[in-house]
């Protein structure tokens, strides 16, 4: 509390009702002045008035005992606000038919009484503690007198302590102090009573803080302190009313800060979302287009009471943008989860930089990723309100000029990208659950097992496509420095088992003066397919099977075949997945043979289906986004006048894994990219 009372709420034996209630032995008589005399008149000495016979006797001050209703209302208001302002006193007085001065005096008297009661209570506790220490001191003295030697059983004879023993005692005191600080910090970290001692057999004991074997107690203490500092900053950023966007200045030409915030509804409850974020594999699967690879390095705390509350772990991941022009970013970071109320959670990431030899921890302020994460609030019906915050710092010199405006917006690796991806994936998962009633499966002509099998195959196709674009460590790609290849085109090669042989991947990115929506609709239109896809052999394509993955138009997995041809005329189909939202758009496809797809659609294993994915990734160019700020601190969802198109192809150049590449193979895939881009420009009437 403020003002007259300073209460230490951290004392375990402190009972708030002790001083908030009305004690019987100190019953407070609520009284106030009924006339206009000052407060000093109320405490005047009546004997002095009797000693002045020659003067006119001053009128005695009348007191008014408040009614039980007035006292009850005053007490209720006092619990909420012990220091009412003038406006509040006037409102109370009007409500209780009392003057503002009476209200003021009542609260002054009540605060004084409560302070007196509290001091009396603390004095009793201090006397009890003093008596306890005195008895303990006497007991220790008696114990020392009767101590016996463990080896001989005789009385202990005090003697001089050696230098080594003295140093050991000093070290023991330091370790005990460090242990106490860790336990104190852990109490704040996950709540409850924390101990690093082993519990007795069969007893519940205290909660225990699991410290990773790779860290000393001091380092674990620093990690906890760092993550709690990051959590506090995340909560402050979430509560700010002003925009978070940091625009570029002349002084920030080398290092560019960017802090973005986005708020939206997600079709998942808070507990399930927290579990997905704290389980590395689930997290990487949800954000597959952003997180190439992720792993948990060390679990520092598993949380408390069987929940994720207080969970802390060290993670590492590769972050990607769908373009060969943007390098993979490898990051090691701490992830901390905290429950702040019923259905209210927060998960924060903070960059980790530590030298394991001397365990020197640096502040996150010197790294390139500041505290980022999300605040999750349950809103019922299996939905949550998510506030996502991304606070990045990057060097513009490391970013290709085409992608600098995108990284200067919230779509590059900002809050819009993360939240839109989460919303899309949760919609897809919810749609899959709804199909388990077999109604939707019947409409698309697949069993539930067949639906899951084809979605699993499409998932593998996407991941393979991503790795060929960004050269992540999902597959071991080798970069080729080939001649007669454009500067913005990257050629990679790898040995493959399915299909067996040497796979060549080529990818490039370019800017096109068309909107993301228009380009996406053109690439998904089966009637226009023959205008750019060589696999169509000059024929338009028709959809034979469509599995929706959400409510958004264009979010689906489909099977395509040449229009006007039946199954006997062609043994080849095209498996394709598409989606389009605020984070960008994707069109990925791969040729598949009909017998293999029949096995998959009947619920068979899709792992043996050979895939060579190709496709397109579309991102807004960020040109109109970087200057538009909304009230949430994110960016206004205005469509750019242009977009960034990434084209990627994978081809099998030789069925022998030991074979060597030749120049003709590189020229073939390079010409394939150039020809496809030329056809897209021509179809959309875009000059070269």
TrEMBL record:
Its main location: nucleus. InterPro entries: HD, HD-Zip_IV, HD-Zip_IV_C, Homeodomain-like_sf, START_lipid-bd_dom. Residues 57-117 form the Homeobox domain. Residues 54-65 have a biased composition (Basic residues). Residues 216-431 form the START domain. This is Homeobox-leucine zipper protein HDG7-like isoform X1. PROSITE patterns: HOMEOBOX_2, START. It holds the Pfam family PDF2_C. Residues 111-143 form a coiled coil.
